[in-house]
Every structure is written in C-alpha cells, then in structure tokens.
Amino acid sequence: METKPLYYIGLMSGTSLDGVDVVIADINLPQKFSLLAAKTYPVPDQLKEELISLSQKQQNNELDQYAQLDVKMGRLFAECSLQLMNENNILPEQVHAIGSHGQTLRHYPDSSYPTSLQIGDPNIIAQLTQITTIADFRRRDMAAGGQGAPLVPPFHQAFFGNNDLNDKKKNRVILNIGGIANITFIAEKQSSTEIPVQTGVIGYDTGPGNGLMDNWCHKNFACDYDASGSLASQGHVEPSLLSLMLNDAYFSQTHPKSTGREYFSPQWIEKYLQRREIHISPHDILATLLELTASSISNEINRLIPHVDEVLVCGGGVRNLRLMQRLAELMPEKIIQSTEVSGLHPDWVEACAFAWLAQQTLNGLSSNLPSVTGADKELILGAIWQA
Q1: Given pLDDT bands bounded at 50, 70 and 90, which one contains residue 79?
Q2: Position 182 in a domain
Q3: Residues 6+ apart with CB under 8 A from 73
Q4: Do 128 and 225 fall into the same domain?
C-alpha cells in the first residue's frame, strides 16, 4: 500500500546571492526521497545590495542593518515558500516542516570565539506560513568543536551514496560550486587489502567558487556573473598573480576547514593586485580568478586517497562552461558531470539537503558528520520554531 506523502520544504540562499532556492520534497525514512517541486525566486536588487554591503563589512551601523535585514529575509523566505506551495496546491497542514539555511553574513570557525551568523528570522517564517520551521543548523556543531560547515555532506552520503542509479564501485566526489566551493568525498566500500580511506566521508570548503568572479563582474563589467564563462574566455591567466593567490594560507590548511564570502572578498582580490607592479586588464584578472577556482578545487580532489573516479557537480558553477572545461582539463582521468545523472538536478541539491536536515531534526536523528566538521560527536542540529 502506498504511504502517505511526508512533505518538507527546503530553503537555500547561498553566498552567490543569485536567488532563493525552494523545494518541496516527500521524505519518508529510511529510503524515500522524492522531489515534488522546485523553483528559484529572485532576491530584490535593493535587498541584494544591502546583503552584499553588510556581508563585506561596508556598513558603519552594522547592528541596525542586521536587525532590519533579518526581518526582510524572514519575510522573503516565507513568501517564497507560500508561493511555491500555492503553485503546487500544497496546503500548510500538509507540510511537516521547513528547513531554512538562512543567509550567511559571518562565518568565523577558527576565531577565539567560533560562531556563524545566518539571517532570515525563523519566527517570521513559522508565523507567516503556519509551518514548523527549523533553522540555525550550524552553531550546535560549533559548540561541539566543529566548523559548523559544510552541512550538506550527510545528505550527499544519504542520496548519492545509496542511489540505485549510481555505480557503487566508484570513489565519488560531490562538488558544489556556489559562491564558495566545497567537496564531499564518498569512497566505495573497501576490502581489508585495499588502501584505507583517510576517514569515512570527508567534506570541506576548497575555497572560492563563483564568489570572487561574481564580485569582479559586478565591479568591472556591470553584470552579476559571467554567463558561461564568456568574459573570462576573452582574457589570459596571469601566472604570477595566480601563484600569489594560490599561496594564500587557506589553501595550505588541512581539513576540516570552512570559509565564506567575508574572507574571499573584493578586499582579498585587491590585496593581491596591490602586490603587482604591472597593469592587468579586467578580462585577464577574471580569467585568473576562474583559474584560481578551478585550480584550488582540482588540487584538493587530485590529492584525495583513494583515487577519485567520478566528480558530480552541482551549484551555479555547473553552468559556467569555461570553468567546467578547465576542471576537465585539470582532472583528465576523472568523469566529471552534473548531479542530474544521479537523479537530482544541480540547482536543487542544497535546498533538498535542508529539507532532509529538517526531517532529521524532527525525527531526533543526527545530521552532522564529525569526519567532515571536526565536531566531538554526532549531533541533532537546528532549533525548532513550532507552527
């Protein structure tokens, strides 16, 4: 007999700020995960500018701005959820919970007082939608000594590690290229005679994804991003600048590690440009930033043990054809393709992860991986705002 659907909504607004991704999924443990509906809703231009300004510390009255944006984002998340439900004839009483990542403004995992700040007031989401809302997923992991990031690898393991569409005899990396790029390494099951895996599942931020390129496009080309990598293709990589950037301390850190837009920022680019005595054209700088993203990602994947056979890519970066081409050239022995080949469109992986995380929390199940975040133990993540 067919089981009754258990609907969950997942909300994701990433560091690239290209929109609010909303999904409705039917999740019924232990096996069922079915994506019912998905859509990206735009972030209004003025709100986007305010978020970028605050995330990059360009405001003098940061506390006042934070308080206002927390409410604005809460309302936006609620409106997007209600709109997708209305478009698919889903009533609030049919949805068990909303899992909301929130919009990250600060992420300081390695400071004396580790913390991470996401806005989008879940009180407002729960009140306006009349649906139980789960948010604030990162800080419990940080309280246990973890990085609080990345949060998506447990979902990657659950979906891509046990999907019947997959060939399980492959060592697989799930590569998410948003504003920041992160990887999840899922090794095939090994016999005792094979090379041991470093740790079961590992995952971490490799460094910049689309974020630095988007910042440069906004400043120099009056556009939000480099569609298909066409602008970068008009430039040439400047080897000495690339070398300087790749020598940044973040890239030499061992995992677990995580970062954010507050680190890989326009100021980060300018720091390295100021060390150059010769003029470099905007197109050449963009080409170098693309190469930085491709190189920092491929360097990490190429050093994984055991050897990676397949890289499944999700996030906005999958549409940057030049970036995907460079990844293929830098990792010629690996199969590189979209997550869609394994049953989930690359645009919806992260939002689906937060729908999944919400059901983990409601079912009292852990949703962090200590091998990924470095936390002392597995934990139930997220706080619950009841409808």
Answers
A1: very high
A2: yes
A3: 13, 47, 51, 102, 103, 119, 120, 121
A4: no
pLDDT at 2 over 50: yes
Indicate whether 298 and 171 sit together in one domain: yes
Q: How confident is the model at residue 192 (pLDDT cuts 50, 70, 90)?
A: very low
210's tokens: 């689309």
User: Exposed e or buried b for every residue in 259-289, given b needs 16+ CB within 10 A?
Assistant: bbbbbbbbebbeebeeeeeeebeebbbbbbb
Q: Does residue 198 sit in the same domain as residue 177?
A: yes
Backbone angles phi, psi at 178, to 5 degrees: -105, -145
The answer to whether residues 191 and 280 belong to one domain is yes
For the residues 119-129, what does the mean pLDDT come to? 98
What is the pLDDT, as a whole number, of residue 304?
A: 94
Residue 152 placed within a domain: no
Quote the CA–CA distance of 327 and 334 in Å, as a whole number: 10
**Are 124 and 222 found together in one domain?**
no
Main-chain phi, psi angles of 147, to 5 degrees: -80, -15
Beta strands in the chain (DSSP E): 7-12, 20-28, 32-41, 95-100, 103-108, 115-119, 133-135, 172-177, 180-186, 201-208, 310-314, 335-338, 383-385
CATH number at 97 reads 3.30.420.40
Domain count, the chain: 2
SS (HEC) of 22-62: EEEEEEECCCEEEEEEEEEECCCHHHHHHHHHHHCCCCCCH
Tell which of 342, 360, 375 closes a domain. 342
Domain membership of residue 111 as a residue range: 7-147+348-385
| pLDDT tens digits, one per residue of 358-386 | 999 999 999 999 999 999 999 999 999 99
Position 155 in a domain: no
Region at 311 (left for phi over 0; alpha for psi -120 to 50; beta for the rest)? beta
How far apart are the C-alpha atoms of 152 and 159, rounded to whole Å?
11
pLDDT tens by residue, 154-171: 999 999 985 444 455 689
The residue type of 71 is V
Instruction: Say if residue 232's pLDDT is above 80.
Output: yes
Q: Is the pTM of this model over 0.85?
A: yes
Q: How many angstroms separate the CA atoms of 204 and 304, rounded?
A: 12
Which residues on neighbouring strands pair with residue 115, listed in sequence order?
Answer: 108
